[in-house]
Design goal:
Elements: H1 8-14, H2 17-24, H3 35-47, E1 55-60, E2 77-84, H4 87-98, H5 107-116, H6 123-133, E3 134-139, E4 156-162, H7 165-168, H8 172-183, E5 186-198, E6 202-205, E7 208-211, H9 217-226, E8 230-238, E9 252-259
Parallel strand pairs: 1-2, 1-4, 2-3, 4-5
Antiparallel strand pairs: 5-9, 6-7, 8-9
Helix pairs in contact: 3-5, 5-6, 8-9
This protein binds S-adenosylmethionine.
S-adenosylmethionine is lined by residues 8, 11, 15, 62-64, 66, 84-86, 89, 140-143, 162-164, 167-168.
């Protein structure tokens, strides 16, 4: 049965940040706390290795209540701006940045990145480094021409986004338009790194069902090309662990690295 598109107002009313963290990222039990985070974190580790993608300003678009996508980037960017559509998610991001006692505990994920960096003793320093690099937590809306309206954010060297655009966009046309809008946030030659799941029609947060724009690798390629990017790499890896497909159904993970043309 088709999942009805989840409107922005339903996100505002129904997306519970604590349920999201518990369902997907809680140590040991979260549906994404294994295969997905390993895929994403390794890709980001390789993308932000010295001499590859680096610069001054990095934007994370639609971070939800999560910080895991920034753990490698904070080694090679000076100024990180993170964002989400929902106030409840931005509150969780601020809590983690302030080290509030009830902030989400990401240390299990931070340790994985420190191991990739062969620096496993220093996970607390890594958290501090990330906190020191995040300059702003702002509201974004994928469906607006300027997704940070009314703010004007300085053009970025790199934008990263995970699992967000498929939540925000109802169809491939809207997805492609959002990619075009995100391109305007980049400097010429700037990088976009997008990671998501493929052939995924829905996901649950607690008892609430959310729609997901079901995409294939070919859809991703088409959307990036139509939006005017130069594709550097698209990687698709099949998902092996199918034990939690009642929470969210998908068949593979996808990593895209593309660039805004120089002119
Ligand atoms: C599945 S969550 C992904 C969160 C996080 N990036 C991650 O990796 O777990 C989908 C996110 O899309 C955001 N979202 C929904 N509608 C949006 C919109 N119109 N513009 C921007 N973000 C939106 C939600 O607030 C939510 O944080």
């Amino acid at each position: 049965m088709e999942t009805t598109f989840t409107t922005p107002q339903s996100y505002i009313d129904d997306f519970n940040s604590i349920d999201y963290f518990q369902t997907y990222y809680a140590p040991g039990v979260g549906a994404f706390a294994g295969e997905w985070t390993n895929f994403v974190l390794r890709n980001l580790h390789e993308t932000f290795a010295p001499g590859r993608v680096e610069g001054d300003i990095l934007i994370e678009f639609g971070a939800g209540p999560t910080i895991y996508n920034l753990l490698s980037a904070c080694e090679v960017f000076n100024n990180i701006i993170t964002s989400d559509f929902l106030e409840q998610n931005r509150i969780q991001l601020q809590k983690w940045l302030r080290k509030d006692s009830d902030a989400f505990n990401w240390s299990h994920v931070v340790k994985v990145v420190c191991e990739l960096e062969a620096n496993s003793d220093n996970w607390e320093e890594k958290e501090e480094k990330l906190r020191s690099k995040v300059s702003k937590v702002v509201k974004c809306d994928a469906l607006k021409k300027n997704p940070f309206d009314p703010l004007v954010i300085p053009a970025a060297d790199c934008l990263i986004s995970c699992l967000c655009l498929q939540a925000a966009c109802e169809d491939l046309e809207s997805y492609c338009n959002t990619l075009k809008n995100l391109k305007e946030l980049l400097k010429p030659g700037g990088h976009i790194i997008l990671q998501n799941v493929l052939n995924c029609p829905f996901y649950y947060v607690g008892h609430k069902k959310f729609s997901c724009l079901s995409l294939t690798k070919q859809d991703m390629e088409k959307a990036f090309k139509e939006a005017g990017y130069e594709i550097e790499e698209i990687k698709v890896v099949p998902c092996i662990d199918k034990s939690k497909m009642d929470i969210s159904k998908f068949d593979s993970f996808c990593y895209v690295h593309a660039r805004k043309p120089l002119n």
